[in-house]
Amino acid sequence: MFGKYSKKVGFSRGVIFILVLVLVASLSLAGCGGSKGSATDAGKSGQSGQAGQTTKKSGFNIALLDGTNANAWRIQMEQNMQQVADRFKSQGIISNYSVYVANNDATTQAQQMDQLINSGVDAILINPVSATALALVIDKAVSKGILVMAIDQHINHPKVISVTNDQYEWARIQAEWLAKQLNGKGDILQFDAMAGAPANEVRHQAFADVLAKYPGIKVLKQVNMDWDEGKAKQLMTSLLSTYPKFDGILCQDGAAVGIINALQEANHPLPKAITSDEWIAYLRLWYDINQKNPNNPLNAIIVENPPGIGADGLMIAVNLLQGKKLKDGVLTSDPMDKENKNAIMIKPTVIITNDNLKEWYEKTKDKPDTYYIDSVLPQEEIDKLFQ
Known about the structure:
Elements: H1 2-9, H2 13-32, H3 39-44, E1 60-66, H4 72-90, E2 94-101, H5 106-119, E3 123-127, H6 135-143, E4 147-151, E5 161-165, H7 167-181, E6 186-192, H8 198-211, E7 217-224, H9 229-242, E8 248-251, H10 256-265, E9 273-274, H11 280-292, E10 302-303, H12 309-321, E11 343-346, E12 351-352, H13 357-363, H14 379-383
Parallel strand pairs: 1-2, 1-3, 3-4, 4-5, 5-11, 6-7, 6-8, 8-9
Antiparallel strand pairs: 10-12
């Protein structure tokens, strides 16, 4: 049969044998084409969102999508990540690292991500504008074997690992502290950050959960200051005309300096207690107030929310790209996404009150006002998260 077919078309048995070998080789190559692995395959092994096994250990192309860098915290986060990226680039582990900013526009962020998918990146790290708005474009990235991770804020997607500071615990500690300072009763003002932002929603929920245990505490007014000190100051000035009497202020980071400045300019008494802000400018303002008023110190608290979480996430992403697997128990559920165990949450370790304010004032003397109390996990601590 082969003789007749070969003769008819002018092929020899030798040529046919070569074609068969080529076909077998092609099929083998096609099987290896997905060696990077998809997040779907990784999810089947119980580790949602991780890159699959790959022979590639270096030369990775990684991009950061930052929702905004219009505040000092995000700038510091990006700087931390750039330092880690530069180290990996010097080692040849990363070939390219790029940063894109969406200016708090979820549509822009989705468009940026779509462009990156088409450019052939290995991993996309996202500090999201919205917890849910990227779902479709994330599906597209995952289907192409791209590792997608969230940093700083959680993304509600089963194939995305989120590396975040424990925002619920951050807010819970401060709300509990405020309630105790007020002996469980009094009127307060609440300054949240940006409505819809994942971190804001988790913190808001933690505030609500704690205050529900203290029916004697009444929230006179809740406002959103969008992580903007200037806006916080304007809001506080406006609120004074309607709510001149209050006992405490519960606020997220980015608000306290503006709030206190507004009160000082209005010659209004400072609250019995105020929460947040890990900004050095706030720590110094707090310290200066206490130095000038030793008999009536400002009663405040700082709980760290380190910008270094972005660098932690980048190191974790590189380990995943190299095919390493997280240990059992490392992944947990985000408080606002309990259906999925796809979050790595770093709990706060630094808490500052009047008891240790002077110590931290001395520790941070060489830092600029715009600096945030910070920490980045050493590479060896990151490696301990993996098998």
